[in-house]
Amino acid sequence: MRRSAQGFTLVELIIVISIIGILGAVALPRFIAAQQDARVAKAQALFGSVRSAAALAKARCELDRAGLVAGATCTAAAGTANMDGTAVDMVFTYPAATAAGILAAAQLVPGSDGLTVTAGNPITFSMVGATTPATCIISYTAATAGVAPVITVNTAGC
Predict the structure, then answer these.
(1) What is the model's pTM?
(2) Is 120 helix (H, G, I), strand (E, B) or coil?
(3) Cα 23 from chain centroid (whole Å)
């Protein structure tokens, strides 16, 4: 009694491996582009979040200055604004370029939000995983007397 052979021939295996290789070569660049698009979208969303937080903090500070809130400490040049129970450091009625300023106003947590924060004025937010982190950033320069803060986004290296 003769047994029949079971399994795949070498030719069949080579054809399957070749097809998988071709599919991988076509799909990989599209996957990499999707990651880049996601980082750009995240940077744009963070940019909008920082702008909105700065505007909301300014509005809160203006309410404090108008005397509409008891015990307010926000003044024309400094102080703090209470945003959802968090004291936000203010400079010229806008959040300061610090962790207790704009980071607190935007409720951002470095590391857990997928970003790296570099302190200073401007304070910068870099996207984790960016191709070139130095050109995938949001920067926030604190307000000066009579001038609103400068908030910029650069997505060239995302």
Answers:
(1) 0.78
(2) coil
(3) 33
